[in-house]
Every structure is written in structure tokens, then in C-alpha cells.
Design brief:
Blueprint lengths: L1 H21 L2 H18 L1 H59 L17 E5 L18 E6 L17 E7 L21 E3 L7 E3 L12 E12 L2 E5 L8 E7 L2 H4 L8 H4 L8 E4 L1 H14 L8 H11 L7 H5 L5 E3 L5 E3 L27 E5 L2 E7 L4 E9 L1 H6 L6 H4 L2
Parallel strand pairs: 9-14
Antiparallel strand pairs: 1-2, 1-8, 2-7, 3-6, 3-8, 4-5, 6-7, 10-11, 12-13, 13-14
Helix pairs in contact: 1-2, 1-3, 2-3
Family: Belongs to the tRNA methyltransferase O family.
Organism: Prunus persica (Peach)
InterPro entries: TrmO-like_N, YaeB-like, YaeB-like_sf, YaeB_N_sf
Amino acid sequence: MGYSTESKWLTATITFALAALSASTAFSCMYTNFVFSFCVALGPCSLLFFWSVTVYFWKRKSRDLDSKIGELEKSLKTSLDNCAAERQGRIRAQQALRKALTQPKLDNVELNSYPMAPIGVIQSCFSTRNGTPRQPVLVPLSRACLIFNTARVPPASLEGLGEYSHCWVIYVFHQNTNLEKLWKDPTKSKFKAKVRVPTLNGERKGLFATRSPHRPSPIGLSVAKVEAVQGHMLLLSGVDLVDGTPVLDVKPYIPYCDSIQGARVPKWLAADSILAVASVSFSEVFTSTLADCWEMAGNNSLYASPDEFKNLIKQVLSWDIRSLAQRNRPHDSFINSENGKQLNDSSDNDHDEEASSPGNEQPPSSSGDIMYHLTLEGLEVSYRLNSDFSVVVEKVKEVSNITHSRQKRCNYSMWRV
């Protein structure tokens, strides 16, 4: 009879234990505590059974957790393997792309291209190509402000550049008259293998033995003095860059590796002094007209005073800036058009080496009356070149279309310390 009663109590205990095992985790602790208290009241036998069932429950739960952990570890390993495989795939694709870009196909003579965009634009004292020096540093007073595109070049990129005295400027000859050839098929866009050299009076040399702007890839390289760095702007001097020049890159000039002692150059290049003029003088009319123009032009100028601007003109005209055609046939530069008006015949199909273009001369009435024009800082400077190779600057006037376009430009006051 006692055994039967104890069996009934044991059955009830098992029922309660199974109910606790099947309950959710949130309520299992409550049921477990209840069953534990109930088993303690029933006696040692029921308590032993409770602990056995509890141990079994936690072992099974531990095995389930171990199984889930194993599945998660396996899933993580699979994901890492997939990521590694994708990374290797991207690397192989990039390598294949670089190989395809750098190795032209044998059955296609068209060379591969690399998309590049300017990082900034030059605001220069040289409003037109005419008068722009053939080489950098020939005109120390020439100035330009490089305005960087902040969408491509953050101002922090210029930090440290001001610690250098000079820098290299890589740019595009954007005013070449044959730029349309860049968009033609290479087999049809013929370029001249030889160009006329100014210092050789028109004698031709191989294109790559010169610094002619007319090149298969019209990219220029100039060294300039770093005057100041301000925000997203760089002030340069000694430049040979025309206004509006697109800049591709800027690199610091490092003397120990950029200056080569004992470097050899051809003899014809060493004789560049033949393009120097005898003297430069200014007429009284020039002084008065400059004073009148400076009241307006001085506000947008990179020069502090009319005297400083006058010195710039003197440095520019210290070299014969005329084109080869103008030097060889100065009085034959004008032809009559069909309507009887005189035009400046300044075309030069051979593209001589100089970066400047012929000025807008006025028709000469006699052998000594040729008037040449140079545009600097939006002002048109008129001058004569005498038979003794001396320059006389006659007058200066504003050029309305250029002056208007020079509004809101860099000026001297922005850089004044």
C-alpha cells in the first residue's frame, strides 16, 4: 500500500518535471523552482529523480547549443572563403584590365587612352598666346594663379607645397589650332614629324627634339616659382602659361634629382640669345595711357602698381616674341580680302616651335611703321620694333571683351601679406 502511494507520487513528480522541460526558457526557471520545492517536500527519492531529469535537460540543451555554434562557425568560414574568393576575383579582374589597357592589341593600331581631367585652371597675366614666353623663368615677373577644383582636389592636398621654392606644372596646350586631331582615328590624324625652330631661322628639327606645343599628346611641362599658397589657390611666378590653361598635375621641384649637372644640349639651342632685343623704351603717350587704364584694370591685376606692370612689359619684350613668319616677312603679313579689307596673314602651317601666336599687326604704310600688339592683364600694349632691334612701347588700352572676362579674378590684394 505504501509502495503504491509512493508510485503515485513519483508519477506526479515525473509529470511536473516533463512539463517543466517542455516550457519556454522564460518560464522554465519558475517551473524548475516550483518542481524543486515540490520534490523537496515529497522526499529524497523524488529529489534525486528531479536532479537526474535536470541534468539530462541541461546536457541536451548544451548539445543543441554546441550544434548551433558549429553551424554558425561553418557558416562564418563559408562567408570568409567567399569573401576571399571575391577579393581574388577582383584582383585578377583589375590585373586583366590593366594588362588590356597597357598592351595594345596587335590587330588594332589605335593606342589605348587613359581618362584624365584637369585638377585646376590657370589665371595668367598672359591673356593670349602672343607674348607668352617660349620657356619658363625667362620672364621672372610673369605671374599666374592656379585655381584648384575643390571637387577633385581638397585644399589639404596643398599642405606642405609652400615649403618648396619651385614646382613643376603639367598642363594641356589647350589653344593649339590642331586639337581636333585628338578625336580622329590615329591613322588619319597625321602630325608633322619635324617642326620649324625659331633659333634656327626656320630650319626643321625632329618634333621630339623640340618643345613645340604641337605634339601627338599636347601636354606641357613647366617649372615655376612658388610665391604663396592660400586655400585652394597657388600663386606662381616665372610662368610661361597662357590664361585659361588646364592643369593636370603639380609636383614639387627637387634640386638634387631635377637638376642634372653637366647636362648636354645642342649647340643651336644654346644660342637662344639671338632672340634678345637690343633695348626696350617707353613713350610719353604710353605713360599717360597706362595711368588712365590702371584705374580700372589695377583692381583685377596680379601687379601692385603701374610701375610693376611696366617692368613686366619690359621683361616680356626683351625677347623677340614675333612668329617666325613675321620675322622672315614682316611687311608681307597683310593680304587683301575679297571685300577689299586688309587682313593679317599670320597662318603658319608648319607650326613653328614658339608657343606664342602672331599679334594683330596694323598694315604698314612704310618699312618702319609696323605696329605690333601684346595683351597682358587684359590690356593691349602697342609697340614698334626698329631696324636696330630696339623696341619702343607706344601706348596701352583696355580690351573690352578680355577686361570683362577678368572680373572676380585673383589680384594682388588677395596675396598681400
